[in-house]
Amino acid sequence: MDEKELIIEIPEEEQFLDILLEDRVAKAQFTVKYLWQVNKHDHDYWPSKPHCHNLEHGWKLNVYTGIIYNVVNKQPIKQLKIKELMLVQKKLVEVGFELKEDKKE
Question: What is the pTM of this model?
Fold first, then answer.
């Protein structure tokens, strides 16, 4: 199946940089405080399913708690504010990621 690219224009603070589609969103990249990338087909479920990657700093974001982890040592290093976390969750749902009530998955 051919991948299709879609660019969505929204305010800079909620900016989507790139969205790739394969029937449903497979990969999204957006900025909420930091640049985050999320992949629907990521087989690594730590620290949450789904979770976001910050490739610049080597961080992972738990999308349920807002805790940001260092990928190398898996230690928490930062936490998003509740408003930022809610914006991340809203954006994930808007592009087709399913957030579970059971946050341990």
Answer: 0.70
